[in-house]
């Protein structure tokens, strides 16, 4: 098939990934390409040149409109609207069999566009106001909608999801996150350094538990890091920067436990699955889809409960390392994910809502 992968353009679709959405889009394009599909990535022009890129914008918009300064601003909205309107027009004229929409932009959801080019839209976020009603009004014969968890599905459609919407778990390549039979007794945390990911709470819990912790990830909110995280560093707590995939997998795999501390309604938790693939049990805040995704491979505390998370760390350390790895192999592999994507593409092209039931 000739497939357009439409990404968001806040960050580059390239390593080191700024977050789960960038990783998702990169691995989707790479995986479909490896399966023999003709893939064009519609993303920022400074994304990974290994792909055939049709630039939505010349460079990712964080460079031009920093999120902290321009979130929701009229200039940013106008910039994105013009870019996505033109990109969607090029997709419609490009002879694509299907478009996989990861953009979180309303134009790609319009029924006139999904009728012109069958579309699968993957929703990576809770139902925030700027997108909520566009999603709900986008149901059409040639449009499929996916969410990453039952928790996220119920948030988008508390009255019950339409047959065109289904759960599509994110998947990883277990070979890129290799299993290690033993850890070094320490803890790891990975994610964007921002308040809603809770790295300061992970650091506090590790100190409380008396376990060494290394934090990894991009510095999304430097002011937060300076005020809340940096004072906790030193001794048993350190920050090791933003590593590329192979280096990060090696570093995570050495640890004995992973801390997952979402302080918002996290729809999935890709970083937890990556760590689980390496054999790390998880101590997590029971927020968003954490229990649903981590399952028997973790122990839990209520969001913000540092003492409870420290107790959960001890409980998680008692979980055999094969348990998290087995859970990933059963539910969250790259091949399972891509198989389901190809099925959804066929359903969108067929335009029969009963196929998604």
Features:
357 residues; Rossmann fold; six-stranded parallel beta sheet; globular; Glycosyltransferase involved in cell wall biosynthesis; transferase
Distance between the termini: 24 Å
Q: Assign an overall shape.
A: globular
Which oligomerization state do the chains in this entry correspond to?
single chain
Annotation, overall tally of beta strands: 13
Q: Give the CATH superfamily of the largest domain.
A: Glycogen Phosphorylase B
- Residue-averaged pLDDT: 94
Looking at CATH, which topology of the largest domain would you report?
Answer: Rossmann fold
CATH top level of the largest domain is Alpha Beta
- Low-confidence runs of at least 5 consecutive residues: 353-357
Rg over CA atoms, rounded to whole Å, is 20 Å
Structurally, how many domains make up the residues? 2
Number of helices: 15
The percent range for strand residues is: 15-25%
Strand line-up in the sheet with most strands: 3-2-1-4-5-6-7
Largest sheet: 7 strands, parallel
Structural class: alpha/beta
Could you give the order of the helices and strands? EHEEHHHEHEHEHEEHEHEHEHEHEHHH
Gross CATH architecture of the largest domain: 3-Layer(aba) Sandwich
Helix % is 40-55%
